[in-house]
Amino acid sequence: xxxxxxxxxxxxxxxxxxxxxxxxxxxxxxxxxxxxxxxxxxxxxxxxxxxxxxxxxxxxxxxxxxxxxxxxxxxxxxxxxxxxxxxxxxxxxxxxxxxxxxxxxxxxxxxxxxxxxxxxxxxxxxxxxxxxxxxxxxxxxxxxxxx
Length: 147
Hints:
The protein has helices at 15-21, 24-28, 60-75; strands spanning 32-37, 40-46, 82-91, 100-111, 114-123, 126-137. By secondary structure, the chain is of the alpha+beta class. It starts with 14 loop residues before the first helix and ends in a 10-residue tail after the last strand.
């Protein structure tokens, strides 16, 4: 688990670890950053009683937040501050209290200041949700990409 900012090989701050450490919402939900590299990230979360809706299954908003956090880690791995321009999620299977989920994000493409990322959320080997995020590098962020 990554819980403190780490230094990159070139001595610079690790932008993903630094961002995740400052992400109070994700940390309060018990989300753990397991691994990350350029364009990818893997996170873990256990569904708690507070995350269950009136149907006895995990509220979709929590699954979206979990996948969105993995997306944020993957798209910020390149260094410049990057935010979501939009995202969609498909709920494939119901999730219950006590389920341990993993979210694996991977970059599909980057172009200009934009990118597309896919996140697969699983319970063990079973896919429970698929998320697609569209990213945008903020103006003024240090980037070698054209503005």
